[in-house]
């Protein structure tokens, strides 16, 4: 689904990613861990197409629901989203004056239009929104408020997972989704990720690239692979046991 080959990227002339390679297959959950400054968020931003991040080498190929491999780096951010990619932010932004419901309906129908699908009616969308909000234990009244305005940190993260549930991407890149969550919110968000992104009812395989500092989210979202990112490169790969070792020994236990 996602093939990253020898990716190099920089921002403001500072080299951040220095030859990163990674393959994520459909149906897999990959966790990316590493110390501050290793390049974890830069990887997420480059894949999402955030302005200011310059790719200086390598390639990224994405194969979405249509089965056609595309050059992800050649697409604008909205085209990447329509192709099936979702980027969850470490710090979800507030959008004053824009209601959650309107924002999400416009986003979903824009993607459906780009894929040649019919837009959802108001009633169809509200039914879907209620279903996903209930999954994340988010009151529907909050979806009527301005996007993330006045939300707590945990509410912003749950709201973002509702967005992911409504958009229903093929590949979710989640940048420190566990940041700022208390114990209960962490469990709800983790269960929400599983419900949205794990295959069910014979649906298509999806994939998750989960960027995190800590092992605690991985108690709920079980990764198939754990990668350690250090100095812009993946320096070690293992299973869930690697995350436990990092929790006990720290990143010094892994040599760059």
Q: How is this structure best described in words?
A:
The chain has one domain: 3-Layer(aba) Sandwich (Rossmann fold), CATH 3.40.50. Helix content is 35%, strand content 29%. It has helices at 40-48, 77-83, 100-114, 122-135, 140-143, 153-167, 183-197, 240-249, and strands at 2-11, 14-24, 29-33, 53-63, 69-71, 85-88, 95-99, 146-147, 171-175, 207-211, 225-230, 233-238. Strands 6-9-10-3-11-12 form a six-stranded mixed sheet, sandwiched between helices. The chain has a four-stranded antiparallel sheet with strand order 2-1-4-5. Helix 7 (183-197) links the parallel strand 9 and strand 10 (207-211). The protein is globular and about 50 Å long. The model has no long low-confidence stretch (mean pLDDT 89).
Q: What would you say about this model in short?
A:
The chain is α/β, with parallel strands linked by helices and 256 residues long. It has eight helices and twelve strands. The chain has one domain (2-253): Rossmann fold (3-Layer(aba) Sandwich), CATH 3.40.50.300.
